[in-house]
Amino acid sequence: MPLPPSTRPAPRVRIHPLGDTALLAELGTRLDTALNTRAIALAAALKKRRDVRQAVAGYTGVTVHFDPDQTTPDVLGAAIKRLAAKRPPMAEPGRLHRIPVVYEGPDLEEVAARLKLSPQRIVELHSRPIYRVFLVGFVPGWAYLGPLPEELELPRRHVPRTQVPAGSVAIAGRQTGIYPLPTPGGWHLIGRTSVKLFLPDSDPPCLFRAGDRVKFFAAKS
Asked: Which residues, in sequence order, are bridge partners of residue 217?
């Protein structure tokens, strides 16, 4: 039986050097919303330190760029471990985005055949969870969303496409995402959306932020 959140032990932190002025604080290795929440909280705490220039949360860790004139890797590493051991404050749920999807992607039939499921079942499974935005990267506006239901897990395509249309909704591994711009890509395309994810004239220019939540729903073409 899993332990309730209040009694779960704090994750063990591994500190790795990244050159002379950066560290990677690794809280774990699995795709897990609780670990991601801790990473986001740790990054927020580190940003308040004078000796930290930048702290960027990833899936389950934080990349920390520091000022070598104000600290050393050993001193900062010890501080990171102390901060990570503290239970983070109750996080407010990230913004919820409801994204309409026309499930007519060019890979939908192939995905259904490989998973031995009907296309309709693929749609039901994909649109069932509320996904976490683990991080934003790859191209402007791209958000790594998950975890994807285990029933939909597939490795990436053997041969990536040289260009994927903007708005394509895709899956790979235990994640899903939306291509914000025309770009090469190796994920399986199961649908498309008209929602714009990268708005260069807005501040911030990306619709999604780490910690946000995303709910897909089927829309008519």
From this structure: 100
